[in-house]
Amino acid sequence: MSDAAFDGVVLINVLVDLLVDATEGFVGHAPGFIAATLHRSLDGTKVTMYARWQSNEHYQAMRKDPGPLPFLKEALTFASFEPGMYEIVKSFEPVDD
């Protein structure tokens, strides 16, 4: 298969761009948003965003905002979305010897 026929990485780049635009334009300004980190796998096949919110209620309120909805709808035309809610159990930092 030639490089011209392979568009998997292109889709990942589009997804990354959509998530950057949605986060910078809307999500990052939402009440309760703390921070987010966007990750692209080294093989270019997956995208993961780690986002921190003050509460699940803040996150759900952002999801109801019509502003980021067009970004989500476009992303769902070529990617799956599997959110999960987690609580932080413990954070680790380097140990000084």
Tell me what the structure shows.
By secondary structure, the protein is α+β, with helices and mostly antiparallel strands. It has a single domain, classed as Alpha-Beta Plaits. Helices cover 35% and strands 15% of the residues. The chain has a two-stranded antiparallel sheet with strand order 1-2. It starts with 7 loop residues before the first helix and ends in a 22-residue tail after the last helix.
- Reading the helices and strands in chain order gives HEEHH
Residue stretches low in confidence (pLDDT < 50, at least 5 long) are none
Secondary-structure arrangement, i.e. CATH architecture = 2-Layer Sandwich
How much helicity do the residues have? 25-40%
Q: In CATH terms, what is the fold-level topology? A: Alpha-Beta Plaits
Oligomer: single chain
- Whole-number count of domains: 1
- Radius of gyration using CA atoms only: 16 Å
Largest beta-sheet characterization: 2 strands, antiparallel
Distance, first to last CA = 51 Å
- Number-wise, the strands total 2
Question: Helix segment count?
Answer: 3
Q: Indicate the mean pLDDT.
A: 87
Beta-strand share of residues: 15-25%
State the CATH class. Alpha Beta
